[in-house]
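FAQ: What does the model actually see?

It sees only this:
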Amino acid sequence: MRHITRQTFNFFGWLAFGLGVIGAFLPLVPTTPFMLLAAYFFSKGSPRFYNWLINLKYFGPQIKDWREHGVIGSKAKILANIVLLTLLVGYHYFTQLPMWIKVSVTVVFVGILTFINTRPSKKKPDKTGQDSVVS
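And it is asked to produce this:
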């Protein structure tokens, strides 16, 4: 990754951030995955932008929960399920592509949904009163 410049990471960070902000206002456009992607790109391109993003009131807690505990909130899971299943059904209904392509898309979407749905939804306090992950 040495050949990828900080400016490239920052460009993709801002692109993902912009798509995430759009997703906050438009139904069926996910916000959380784009913000997680923006955090990843900013962590590689600019510590200043990364720190700004994770300290935002609305997006920061979701990013921190994912980075520290692997938690995906229930709302994000529900939205991801709706979006991916809608895309999957729409893709199969409106396209006349070969069956092997449709099966490949189905396998990928089912894999993504399986990953999302097997992540914990929230943290729970452990014996010391600190948050730990709940499946």
